[in-house]
Amino acid sequence: MERTYVADTVNKIGEKINLYGWVDSKRDHKKIVFIDLRDRTGIVQVVGGEEFKELSSEDVIHIEGTVKERPNNLINSKIKTGTVEIEAHTLQILSKAQSLPIPINSHGYEIDEELRLKYRYLDIRRERMTQNLRIRSKVILFISNYLASQGFIEVETPILTKTTPEGARDFLVPSRLQKGKFYALPQSPQQYKQLLMVAGIERYFQITRCFRDEDPRKDRAYGEFTQLDLEMSFVTQEDILKLTEELFTNLVKEIFPEKHISQTPWPRLSHKETVEKYGSDRPDLRKNKNDKNELAFCWTLDFPLFTQQSEEDFFYGSGKAKFAPSHHMFTAPHPDDIPLLDTDPLKVRGLQHDLVLNGYEVGGGSIRINNPLIQAKIFELIGFTDKQKEEFKHMLEAFTYGVPPHGGIAPGIDRLLFSLLGETSVREVIAFPASSGGKTSVMNAPSEATEEQLKELGICVKEKV
Ligand code: ASP
Fold first, then answer.
1. Are residues 335 and 407 in the same domain?
2. What is the pLDDT of residues 367-412, one digit of tens each?
């Protein structure tokens, strides 16, 4: 007999059905035993006899039974299947469960996070986590469909690649075929998406993973995160802001109908004005900070193209230069400020846009440089050595074969969901995040390589922690 899902039981009164799932809870009333059976669609009460006594919470079972309507006085309005219960005829235990190391029937915030991550596959059984992952999936699907309807195509770009600096350290992967050389995991697909514009794709997006070796925070997971990366040709900054605003306004309407956006069109603030007025370039513009359904989106614009950097500042390639890019080194200077590149670089404005939601930066992007001479000048200003210039010469060459004006943005999916769901940390919206100490959930990476592996890679480890 085919499987019935828990949520469908209410439509099958009087019918014989097969249910599969977990024992959510058990109430032993001597002669009869009640259990709540849980599957991905909900829970339903099942009534059984003696044979149910051996069941424990989280056992995986198969039940054959009949759906009975509950008398009015026994209806449980707290659950969706509260109008019915299942009278079990047969019980099959598919897998016994020992008692769980963490409770899963609470919201989970009270449990030590390291323990939750060690047992993440159990932690995800809790309703809040399951719900977060479902919403995440819906959000990603919505974004993909919306962008496809606007003529975008999703293109995958390499993970084993060369450095694409976004201001963090790279993760390196040693090459076996070319001993002594390393791939870098992309901090973003920035270069590839620009190359796709040279390739004539015109409207690209990708739900992609980015890798940055920087310290975790509550709004930033360690190591990797997911972003909606997009790029468009023949556009102005206005087109990018408009598309993003329409995308997220529609997304909120569809998936978070209980939320309201406090101001439309979204306020646009200049970097200078924001810092002066709010002391930060990511102001929290909510009218009522206690209202969990208020969404205050805004844009920060007119960033300086460069920030001043001291000798100790970390930026790829510019250990000694005075300037580091505010956004990244492919951001176009404001056309009116180009002469200032030679005279007063810190005064140059960049065509950068940052997307802010309730005080968190949830995305950033820019119009890009498409003139190889200006790009070369930026490399100079940020202090690239000849060797570093060599690393990026494919961009300069690509731009000599006909490159459209282009620009884009990359909202972070984890951070966006964290804000939309009002969660306590981005890790609450990621299935298997790394812990704050940089260890992966459950599998506890990183781990040591074997002698053979190191030998094949031509690597000798000098220091171990
Ligand atoms: N690559 C940028 C980032 O990851 C986004 C962009 O400029 O489109 O922040």
1. yes
2. 999 999 999 999 999 888 888 899 999 999 999 999 999 999 999 9
In tens, the pLDDT along 244-282 reads 999 999 999 999 999 999 999 999 999 999 999 999 999
Residue 445 maps to a domain: no
Q: Given ligand 1 and candidates 191, 197, 207, 327, which is best to mutate, with the most ligand atoms within 8 Å of its CB?
A: 327
Helix axis angle for 237-255 and 127-149, nearest 10°, is 140
The secondary element (H helix, E strand) that includes residue 140 is helix 127-149
Structurally, the chain folds into a number of domains equal to: 2
Q: CA-CA distance, 410 to 229, in Å (whole number)?
A: 4
Q: Is the CB of 409 under 6 A from ligand 1?
A: yes
The per-residue pLDDT for 317 is: 53
Q: What is the pLDDT of residues 321-332, one digit of tens each?
A: 788 899 999 999
Distance in Å, CA 405 to ligand 1 centroid: 16
Instruction: List, in sequence order, every residue forming a beta bridge with 322; answer none if it has no partner.
Output: none
pTM of the full structure: 0.95
Q: How far is the CA of 121 from the centre of ligand 1 (A)?
A: 32
Name the closest-CA residue to atom 9, ligand 1.
Answer: 364
Whether residues 137 and 256 fall in one domain:
yes
| Residue 446 located in a structural domain | no
Whether 354 lines ligand 1, by a CB cut-off of 6 Å, is no
State whether the beta carbon of 435 lies less than 6 angstroms from ligand 1.
no
